[in-house]
Design goal:
The structure holds two protein chains of two kinds. Chain A is α/β, with parallel strands linked by helices. Chain A contains 28 helices and ten strands. In chain A, the strands form three sheets. Chain A has a six-stranded mixed beta sheet with strand order 2-3-1-4-5-7, with helices on both faces. A two-stranded antiparallel ribbon of chain A has the order 6-8. Chain B is mainly alpha-helical. Helices cover about 50% and strands about 0% of the residues of chain B. The termini of chain B are far apart. The chains are: A alpha/beta, B mainly alpha.
């Protein structure tokens, strides 16, 4: 039996480590054209040799680390987190050799077998850079392989090199971790750079030059006025597109689900199973599936922005603005991840050096609208906001959705600002300058975007087919049993378990205008926010007393039974409420503090209640 | 009768599945909406 070997994949941020990891292991881990995507170690099996475990580590510029994600890389390499790796695959950015080679020289002090993957070689070549890899290999004393990890055929040589490394007799260092750590900490940066410059003058024939269009584009995109306009326009168009492009497919899905419900209802003999499938499963799962096109479009547009290299420029642009709230541009990328999901956002706050700024970023991340909230917003907006054009160009529903996202962003800014004032009084505010490498612009890689999009869409479908399916079944049982007495004086659903529980909770939310159905829907919504939509679908389907009501779509039922003040209050609640247990669990893990987690959950719930109350009371008087 | 049995199996199955997912399976917390957090950190201090 062969021994298991572990090879660590390490390099500076955004040099394509995860792309190479995906190619070597056949994984589909998230990659993007900006630094800080990987914030924890990730493992996979080498495709060519199953006994080799590849560990993808967070990017770091040096082994003398400054942030929690970089610290993970150092600890893994020194064997302070479990076993020490048997060898290193150092990923170097061919377009930024000076910084990257300094890191390789530091890695040599670990005294481990190593192979260097000179990645982004195609980009370097396109810029006229000529690198003699053989000479570099001789100078560094380790194999140097040119790679293009985002292309499937760009990794053949590195695969062979890794396989050769695995089959060779791997020498282990005689020094202990502490001695190596001390040696690394005592390295002289100046001497390292001198050595790098010598290697570069020997191995690089022609220097790297950015194309002129690149610099011209940067002068527009990074300009405080034109840059901000471009950013706002990009976001505005994104939310308009979510409504405008998705509508035809959504109508088609809604019609198909309606037809499926009719067909099942007519085909199966009437009875309990018929009722469960039609009013429980199809009404519940179907009402969530309707929003798949909107989620797909939103993700596709975010992925396009990610892959093009635009996002870090937006971070740079917003650095000054964020500084006013006590944050820095470094917080931008974690916060931006929140628009997909708060969990990766909370985790990627590890790239933030200042502990206070990191905690504030984690605390405000749930305020930014995640994709799971999109079905809730979309349902209520479609139910109560008229589908008409404004100024003959914009869609009113799209503007409302954009407004909700803006409210989330503004609220996050205000909360961060308030926290800054508190911290200022205690003298805890430290402003760190933003040091971030701007990646080169590139044409988005369609293969990567489609893979990443499929990851997200399949995750959404999987969730609809598992959690949402199961919750719909249980909820159907709760709204159906116990059966109403023969001489019923109220709607039959009021006698059910769900009806009783809903009426019990409802007084707490009565000042917000919430009905008992909404209160019930919020409980399973803690598992995943979009479950609220499925729950409302099941409750209203079972509660429908006439055929006319049963045929009405969920949006129509909400429109006729909620009223504007209640709908607005429910939207306000969902902008602020920490209604996602998974996020709270990750906050607990990342802050390592129950008190901080409870504080964050408490302030978000309190804020949600107060804002929803104010919204309802004002709307009640105005509408 | 058959319908009632199938319904009972589905409801019990759903309760067991959700119970196992949220209470029984002690692994990392993810919402499943994307793969950005598919990281391994079993030995995180």
């Amino acid at each position: 039996m062969t021994n298991t070997l572990s090879f660590a994949l390490i390099g500076q941020p955004n040099c394509g480590k995860t792309a190479l990891f995906n190619l070597l292991t056949g994984s589909n881990a998230k990659i993007a054209n900006y630094p800080g995507v990987t914030v924890d170690r990730r493992e996979g099996q080498f495709l060519e040799q199953k006994n080799v475990k590849i560990i993808d580590l967070p990017g770091t510029y040096s082994l003398r680390t400054t942030s929690p994600d970089e610290e993970i890389s150092r600890k893994v390499l020194l064997g302070q987190l479990g076993c020490k790796p048997d060898a290193i695959i150092a990923v170097a950015d061919a377009t930024n050799l000076r910084m990257t080679l300094r890191m390789v020289l530091e890695l040599k002090h670990l005294d481990l077998p190593m192979v260097v993957s000179l990645n982004l070689f195609d980009v370097a070549k396109a810029r006229g850079l000529k690198i003699d890899t053989e000479k570099m290999s001789q100078r560094l004393g380790v194999p140097v392989i040119a790679t293009t990890a985002i292309k499937k055929n760009g990794s053949e040589q590195i695969r062979q090199a890794v396989a050769a490394l695995a089959n060779s007799e791997l020498q282990h260092s005689s020094k202990d971790s502490q001695t190596i750590a001390t040696e690394i900490d005592q390295l002289d940066s100046k001497a390292l750079y001198q050595e790098v410059d010598q290697i570069l003058s020997d191995c690089v024939i022609q220097q790297n030059q950015l194309p002129r269009w690149h610099q011209k584009l940067d002068s527009i995109v990074l300009n405080p006025v034109s840059g901000l306009l471009i950013l706002l326009t990009a976001l505005f168009v994104m939310f308009q597109a979510v409504y405008a492009w998705a509508a035809p497919v959504m109508d088609l899905i809604e019609e198909s689900i309606g037809n499926l419900g009719d067909w099942v209802g007519e085909t199966l003999p009437s009875g309990m199973l018929n009722d469960l499938l039609v009013n429980g499963v199809i009404a519940g799962v179907g009402s969530v599936l309707v929003f798949l096109p909107q989620i797909t479009i939103l993700f596709a547009l975010i992925l396009l922005l990610e892959d093009s290299g635009y996002l870090p420029r937006a971070a740079y642009l917003l650095d000054n603005l964020l500084a006013k709230t006590g944050l820095s541009g470094r917080a931008f990328i974690p916060l931006l991840s929140s628009f997909a999901c708060a969990i990766p956002s909370v985790m990627s706050a590890r790239t933030i050096h200042d502990p206070r700024e990191r905690l504030v970023t984690i605390a405000i991340a749930p305020l930014l609208t995640c994709s799971a909230r999109l079905p809730v917003y979309a349902l209520i907006i479609a139910a109560v906001i008229p589908d008409r054009e404004v100024f003959g160009l914009f869609n009113l529903q799209g503007i409302t959705l954009f407004g909700l996202y803006v409210i989330g962003v503004l609220s996050a800014g205000i909360i961060a600002f308030i926290m800054k004032i508190f911290a200022h009084k205690k003298g805890k505010v430290q402003q760190f300058p933003l040091l971030m490498e701007l990646p080169t612009y590139r044409m988005p890689n369609i293969r990567h975007i489609l893979i990443a999009l499929w990851e997200r869409v399949s995750a959404f479908l999987k969730r609809a087919g598992t959690i949402i399916f199961a919750i719909s079944v249980i909820l159907w049982a709760l709204v159906t049993f116990p059966e109403a007495p023969a001489d019923l004086q109220a709607p039959a659903i009021d006698y059910s378990f769900a009806g009783m529980l809903g009426h019990l909770i409802q007084p707490i939310f009565a000042p917000l205008g919430f009905t008992w159905e909404m209160c019930i829907a919020m409980i399973p919504g803690l598992a995943a926010r979009e479950v609220v939509v499925a729950t409302l679908g099941t409750i209203y389907s079972v509660a429908a007393t006439s055929e006319e009501m049963t045929e009405q779509a969920l949006m129509g039922l909400i429109n006729s039974s909620w009223g504007l003040p209640t709908a607005f209050a429910f939207l306000a609640w969902y902008v602020y409420a920490p209604m996602c247990l998974a996020t709270l669990a990750v906050i607990k893990r990342e802050t390592n503090s129950t008190a901080k987690t409870l504080l964050i959950a408490g302030y978000l719930t309190g804020l949600a209640y107060v804002i929803a109350l104010i919204t309802y009371q004002i709307a009640l008087r105005l509408v | 009768m058959i319908q009632t049995i199938i319904v009972a199996i589905m409801v019990i199955g759903a309760v067991v599945y959700l119970g196992y997912r949220y209470l029984g399976k002690k692994t990392k917390s993810t919402c499943g909406s994307c793969n950005a957090c598919q990281n391994s950190s079993p030995d995180k201090k």
